[in-house]
Model the fold of this input.
Amino acid sequence: MRKINSFTFITLDGYYKDNDSDISWHNHGAEENKFSEEQLQQGNILLFGRITYELMYSFWPTQAAKNLYPIVAERMEDAEKMVISNSMQRAVWNNTTVLGGDIIEQIKKLKSTKGKNLTILGSGSIVHLLTDAGLIDEYTIMIDPLALGAGTSLFSGIKNKLALELADIRTFKNSGIVVLTYRKNAG
Done:
């Protein structure tokens, strides 16, 4: 059975984007780049919502990305990717499949088969949807050392209490970022 991991960066006050949907506040330093290289080496299928897919596609296949972050850019390009969208008919990024229709049923079916695990990158609305359905096994949350005061919270409006167990902590000393990994509590 496949597992699903959510990878999201948030602020100290729990927002993954500000009121204007801006995420430019996130710190993209050398330590985060190294962490991204390690995560992408796992070979998981990358899962995006349409908005995050478009944001990622606007950067990672470019020469600027290849110059700044060559290993991450190559792994993003080569990775198998899925974009969840009922409005997108086809994806243009290399190795990308579009999932539409009943997303919950499709993800349940995908999880029940053997194969690569899935990692949701950002995509707050997809995290929210799959959290409510109980389909995410692990949450990796990168906390930036700043507060926005307002924005969109990752777990705002979830229907059921989400009990998690701390699995790992990683600190990036240069940026002050902390990465917390939680697993779904079996109890």
Summary: The mean pLDDT is 92. The helical segments are 30-41, 50-59, 63-68, 70-78, 103-111, 124-132. The first strand starts at residue 4 and ends at 11.
